Amino acid sequence: MSIRIEPVPYLLHFRFAAGTSRGILHEKKIWILRLTDTENPGVCAYGECGPLAGLSVDDIPDFEVQLQEVCQLFNQLDLEVFPFNLPMIVQQVVPEHLPSVRFGLETALYDYLNGSRRMIFPNAFAAGKQGIQINGLIWMGEKEFMLKQIEDKLQQGYTTIKIKVGAIDFEQECEILRFIRSRFSPEKITLRVDANGAFSAEDVHDKLEKLSAFKLHSIEQPVKAGQTQLMQQIAMESPVPVALDEELIGLPAYMQKFNLLKAIQPPYIILKPSLLGGFQQCREWIEIADRLHIGWWITSALESNIGLNAIAQFTGSFPAQMPQGLGTGQLYHNNFPSPLTIRNGYLHYEEAEKWDFSPL
Asked: Which of 61, 120, 68, 121 is nearest to 94 (CA)?
């Protein structure tokens, strides 16, 4: 076959200092996988890979070297790609310890097979006929900064707000939640919080008890991943429904996934394709979660619009679920212009808008 892939580095710059429990983010380095066809010079498909510092399995010093090796191997094999063998190719060409590369290659190949039109998964969302309800993400920071974000999200029509907690004083975070609840009942505004593993085994139960006063929908990853017994206890006893997030990272085998969810039995899991190894991996998590009656939603992980588009179209392949975590496209001042737009708390694909890859 005549297709070739090359990685193109790109540095995304945040519009503001984005606070998480793991520190402040100002920029994110990604690599765009650009797929070309030597027999069709006008054809160009794209994928994206970029580990999250301190979180991704492939946040490793020689990531770029290994990415180059994957691309060289793919090009040397001169593979023929079809829908039926695409997942197998990704699995065989990309080692499992490079989940963001699997995500990027999978995206580029689906784009190519669907005509190199950024149509990763043809469905009503990708055709611009149906929006996806999303939560409004509130970043950590000074109390005034967080309140300003909340006011903006409410004015923009969001009915589900997700607030990151664990970086500033816990009592201040409770004050912010108390302020929201003083204005909006649970029937008006759904509140989610994300601790990113910031609570300790000693204080988690006390903090969850205090948080329960605010009638929260859920709390993501209250303690650090890898403490299965503790998480099992928390999921069973917490007055706030628990959603596993980082806990899912680094478990590529089907039985690993099943054993984890069977042991912890969380109310929810959160799926981030670029951290979990792509869409085939997410399908396995979804199949197991549905079988065990565990709820789930899909979240982007600071990708550019290239990765976000693929994740949103994947999400649109499933029946309407609860609000998804796909509101990160506006984080960067040098993101790739795209048809992705947000209106009244829904992500839409506006076919009239065009993609612009000139920054590459």
From this structure: 68
